[in-house]
């Protein structure tokens, strides 16, 4: 590299690192917009050219053929999907894809709607945007509809999917009534609560380590035009916990529940109800998803600042994507002036920038800074330990807002040991958990995520909680197996032919053993050294 090239590279890295907002506005947003348009056109063209639900069986046979070829080749490599590692919500990139045999699982069709059984059958690469846009005009919606359009059914099942209806329906995996997977011996297996029962309950959170998902049946519920939201500012930690728990347990009165915690002693609890009618005396319609609207978390804070409660009506898809434009509140770190009215009016339509491009433009400096000074975690805590969790995050991180989303875990003894009801001090079981989402730059002096995350993981384990595995995982395998009961999972991996030869364990895929930062991945890919 010449001196001029070196200087240019150094200048580019300086701009990416120290003037990320300007870079994102001038370069990243236009590139992201063009990229998204290109991807949309490419996908639409591919969809019209190749979409054929009637060909589902043939495409599954293509997956089976690849696995049988792997067996004929001597089972020399581990297997994984060929989907690029950049196409994920994780801040990390899976490096194992560089050494494993990539199996093409090109399955992205909606296969059928059964309104009598209230289910929709889909392939694993169907995403939330595709599914909700298909269902809502027909008067239906997935019982749990996670935030971002690009989240896929397969990722939400094999990984993690929560939304504010999860207090009624559980995680995304819990609204699935059937899975179809191709095992490592090249066999198509249908799994339901009555058929291949043990495998059905083990597939969620397995991260593709038991087989390749090729179809799923998902529970749907009637959709309505609006979500009527009640905003309730609450002060005092005890009141926050008590009122949030009361709202979360009221599954008859509340279709949606969430809270944004703005400080140790202040929060806004939101209760939502599906409705087709508007009562103007209660509140007005707020199409919060329009490009010029304030970022949702800042809009919510106006209710706290005004110390008043009240209602408003949000159109259904606007509600589903209320946090999308601002990536909850992470956009403020990328474009600090992004919520300015002038910026929203002129460029709000371009938000959010493409996640893949955000990863691609990471530099070594931003990697070091984010590893040390940024937290991006979802911790699933028993609601009985919510106060302990809020206190812990305040004492150790001081990062706000915090996102609280309640979720119910079915009380089923056959359910995957990875997540299960927790035991109360009186010995009884409770199925209510809460996802505590911590995203951003902690204000705690001297905070170092490399030190604090292992402490947080230990705290969660000691309080019968679970870590969402899309995020960074620093715990050892021994600690991982303490947090997640592997007895059911290990039994199935031992029983399924070729399973352990074909697939890593979950820990190998989700821990730092299997993932690296994007800038490191680019180096590994270039040099093919892992």
Question: How would you characterize this protein structure?
Answer:
- By secondary structure, this protein is of the alpha+beta class.
- It has a domain of 99 residues: 2-Layer Sandwich (Alpha-Beta Plaits), CATH 3.30.70.
- It has 21 helices and 20 strands.
- Strand 4 and strand 5 form a beta hairpin.
- Helix 1 crosses helix 2.
- The longest helix has 31 residues.
- It is found in: Endoplasmic reticulum membrane; Golgi apparatus membrane.
- Keywords: Cholesterol metabolism, Endoplasmic reticulum, FAD, Flavoprotein, Golgi apparatus, Lipid biosynthesis, Lipid metabolism, Membrane, NADP, Oxidoreductase, Signal, Steroid metabolism, Sterol metabolism, Transmembrane, Transmembrane helix.
- One of its GO terms (biological process) is cholesterol metabolic process.
- It comes from Candidatus Methylospira mobilis.
List keywords for this structure.
globular; alpha+beta; Alpha-Beta Plaits; 530 residues; 8-stranded antiparallel beta sheet; 21 helices; single chain; 6-stranded antiparallel beta sheet; Delta(24)-sterol reductase
Which architecture of the domain at 226-324 per CATH? 2-Layer Sandwich
Reading side by side through the largest sheet, how are the strands ordered?
Answer: 13-10-12-11-15-18-14-19
Question: What share of residues are in beta strands?
Answer: 15-25%
CATH topology of the domain at 226-324: Alpha-Beta Plaits
Q: Radius of gyration, rounded?
A: 23 Å
Mean model confidence by pLDDT: 88
- Total beta-strand segments: 20
Helical content band: 25-40%
Content-based structural category = alpha+beta
Number of helices: 21
Residue stretches low in confidence (pLDDT < 50, at least 5 long) are none
What is the CATH C level class of the domain at 226-324, in words? Answer: Alpha Beta
- First and last CA, distance: 25 Å
Report the major sheet: 8 strands, antiparallel
Q: What overall geometry do the principal axes of the alpha carbons give?
A: globular
């Amino acid at each position: 590299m010449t001196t001029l090239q070196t200087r240019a590279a150094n200048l580019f890295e300086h701009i990416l690192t120290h003037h990320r907002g300007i870079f994102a506005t001038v370069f990243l947003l236009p590139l992201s917009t063009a990229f998204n348009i290109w991807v949309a056109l490419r996908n639409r063209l591919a969809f019209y050219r190749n979409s054929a639900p009637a060909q589902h069986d043939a495409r599954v046979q293509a997956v089976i053929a690849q696995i049988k070829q792997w067996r004929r080749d001597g089972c020399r490599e581990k297997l994984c999907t060929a989907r690029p590692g950049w196409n994920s919500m994780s801040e990390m990139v899976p490096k194992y894809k560089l050494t494993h045999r990539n199996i093409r699982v090109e399955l992205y069709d909606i296969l059928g709607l059964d309104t009598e059984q209230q289910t929709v059958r889909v392939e694993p690469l169907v995403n939330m945007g595709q599914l909700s846009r298909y269902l809502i005009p027909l008067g239906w919606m997935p019982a749990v509809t996670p935030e971002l359009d690009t989240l896929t059914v397969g990722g939400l099942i094999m990984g993690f999917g929560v939304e504010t209806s999860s207090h009624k329906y559980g995680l995304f995996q819990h609204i699935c009534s059937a899975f179809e997977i191709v095992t490592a011996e090249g066999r198509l297996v249908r799994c339901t609560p009555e058929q291949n029962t043990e495998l059905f309950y083990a597939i969620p959170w397995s991260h593709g380590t038991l087989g390749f998902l090729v179809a799923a049946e998902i529970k749907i519920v009637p959709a309505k035009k609006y979500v009527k939201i009640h905003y309730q500012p609450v002060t005092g930690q005890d009141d926050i916990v008590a009122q949030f728990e009361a709202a979360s347990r009221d599954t008859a009165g509340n279709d949606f529940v969430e809270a944004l915690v703005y400080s140790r002693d202040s929060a806004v609890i939101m209760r939502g109800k599906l409705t087709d009618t508007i009562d103007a005396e209660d509140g007005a319609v707020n199409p919060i998803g329009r490009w010029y609207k304030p970022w949702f978390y800042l809009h919510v804070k106006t209710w706290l600042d005004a110390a008043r409660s009240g209602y408003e009506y949000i159109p259904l898809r606007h509600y589903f994507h209320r946090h999308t434009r601002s990536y909850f509140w992470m956009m403020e770190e990328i474009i600090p002036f992004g919520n300015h009215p002038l910026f929203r009016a002129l460029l709000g339509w371009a938000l959010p920038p493409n996640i893949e491009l955000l990863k691609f433009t990471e530099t070594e400096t931003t990697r070091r800074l984010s590893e040390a000074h940024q937290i991006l975690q979802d911790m699933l805590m028993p609601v009985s330990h919510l106060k302990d969790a809020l206190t812990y995050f305040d004492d150790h991180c001081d990062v706000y807002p915090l996102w609280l989303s309640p979720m119910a875990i079915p009380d089923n003894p056959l359910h995957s040991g990875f997540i299960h009801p927790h035991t109360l001090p009186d010995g009884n079981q409770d199925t209510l958990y809460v996802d505590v989402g911590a995203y951003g730059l902690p204000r705690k002096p001297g905070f170092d995520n490399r030190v604090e995350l292992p402490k947080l993981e230990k705290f969660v384990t000691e309080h019968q909680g679970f870590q969402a595995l899309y995020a960074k995982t620093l715990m050892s395998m021994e600690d991982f197996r303490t947090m997640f009961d592997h007895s059911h999972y290990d039994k199935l991996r031992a029983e399924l032919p070729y399973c352990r030869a074909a697939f890593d364990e979950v820990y190998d895929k989700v821990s730092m053993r299997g993932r690296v930062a994007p800038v490191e991945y680019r180096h590994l890919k270039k040099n093919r050294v892992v």
